[in-house]
Design brief:
Helices cover 55% and strands 0% of the residues. It has 150 residues and is an all-alpha fold. Helix 1 crosses helix 2. The termini are far apart.
Length: 150
């Protein structure tokens, strides 16, 4: 996959320095297209994604580190521009809610199975009255017809 050309990156966007182009491509895969929202700017063909790809390359050409490029784009567009948001107090709920929901679901299943199992153990065995036992014996032996119970 690393050797295959991207569909969205145009030839006029590609930097002449292959190391800087590789950095730009790596950064572009981490950034969300604000139009498509489920694609990276590296994969998106939206005009805004092209503008962001050019901006990334411009910042790299100016000598910014990868962290500086990301920080610049986050300052300009917000955390939403990152496909994988950072772990900070503003995103704790985003990161912690899925494991908490999974743990809660596991606990609910555990509690349900324990409650269901304990109901079966606590249930008293069904006992028949002497009249019911006599009717059952008659039915099983085939000697009597069942009585209709009102």
């Amino acid at each position: 996959m690393a050797g295959s050309p991207a569909r969205a990156v145009q030839p006029d966007e590609i930097m002449s320095d292959t190391a800087k182009e590789a950095r730009a491509r790596d950064l572009s895969r981490e950034l969300r297209c604000m139009v498509c929202q489920n694609q990276s700017i590296d994969d998106s063909e939206a005009p805004l994604a092209r503008d962001l790809r050019l901006l990334v390359r411009e910042r790299i050409a100016a000598g910014d580190s990868d962290a500086q490029v990301i920080d610049f784009l986050v300052a300009r567009y917000g955390e939403f521009v990152l496909l994988k948001p950072r772990l900070n107090p503003h995103t704790w709920l985003l990161w912690l809610l899925p494991p908490m929901a999974l743990a809660g679901g596991g606990f609910a299943l555990w509690a349900y199975s324990r409650r269901r199992g304990s109901r079966g153990a606590e249930a008293a065995p069904v006992t028949l009255t002497p009249d019911e036992e006599a009717r059952l014996e008659a039915l099983l032996s085939g000697k009597a017809s069942p009585k209709k119970v009102a």
